[in-house]
Model the fold of this input.
Amino acid sequence: MGQGMSDKKPFKPHWHFAPKDMLIGGGLMIAVMFGVWLFWPKGGDDLPGVSYKPVYVEAAEMLHLAQVLSSDALEGRAAGTAGNEAARGFIHKRFEEIGLLPLPGFGGYTHTFPVVPREADAAPITGANLIGYIPGKTPGEGPMLLVTAHYDHLGVRDGEIYNGADDNASGASALVAVAEYFALHRPEHDMVIAALDAEEIGLLGARALSRMDGLDMARVALNLNFDMVGRSEAGELYVAGTYHSPELAGIISEVAADAPVTLLMGHDRPEDGPNDWTLQSDHAVFHQMGIPILYFGVEDHPGYHNPSDDFDALTLDFFVRAADTLVMAVQSVDADLQEISTLRREPAGETVQMEGSTQ
Ligand SMILES: [Zn+2]
Done:
């Protein structure tokens, strides 16, 4: 797959942007749209580098969103920057296009929160989560699924753009692809879809969500978190969380049996030390509240937190297969959510270090 960007054609989604949308994220979105449009292939649904035919997700839309989010123009999407705002604009537009509802009681998807950086001289910034809602068969009642992925990344450091294609343009675009499927195929239980901000500076978007008014966290039976699901030469996707909720292992084994990737349980035992991912992304916040978690991610690769984490280093065939696997996993836990809702534990209390705070 390691072709250069110049000979890798991007994907032809069915996006149409009304002028008002261009105002979200200022002119940056215009620049990105123009930049990507220049390279759009002409005709056909063949996706360069993808031989797998997805069953559940709209692969062209997903790959295009991942490509846009990880483009240089968005400058690594650090919280509080114009690139971050533009990224939010693109995800916001997709939320609208797939017909996601705002959370009941809210007029829109955007939920801002203040971020007070740790450095005394640093100016406070405003973070923003995008939260959508898919009603289940009994809207407003019963257990609820919380599906998350962060869209921010490291920004520009020492003059280099950290594009964060795998971390986490892949997870954010997979989140939208999964939501699109369930927006069209009503789930059994209510689903909250959250594109989270400020993960890289202390899981702050997840913290803000866990404390917000208007979202009944007591109904959340399970959190599924997607972070780095687009790059695996080995074709392996890990799921962490069954060590803490062994009752979920049976469900995951069934998904793994039919999944178009090698789905492996692991990276969640204390003895894994630095390779224990239980506290290493947004799911940590919900885990500490006692909510069962399933975190989906690939094994670390050379691009992790490196300027080389670019779109053209993603393994696209695997990425599309992984997204289909995520839909299959969500379907399976949705079917058993009443039972899963009995697995909640006592809150563990805060142990994760924070760079900034949400006050
Ligand atoms: Zn990440």
Q: What stands out?
A: Residues 150, 167-168, 199, 227-228, 281 surround zinc ion (CB under 6 Å). The radius of gyration is 19 Å. The first helix runs from residue 19 to 23.
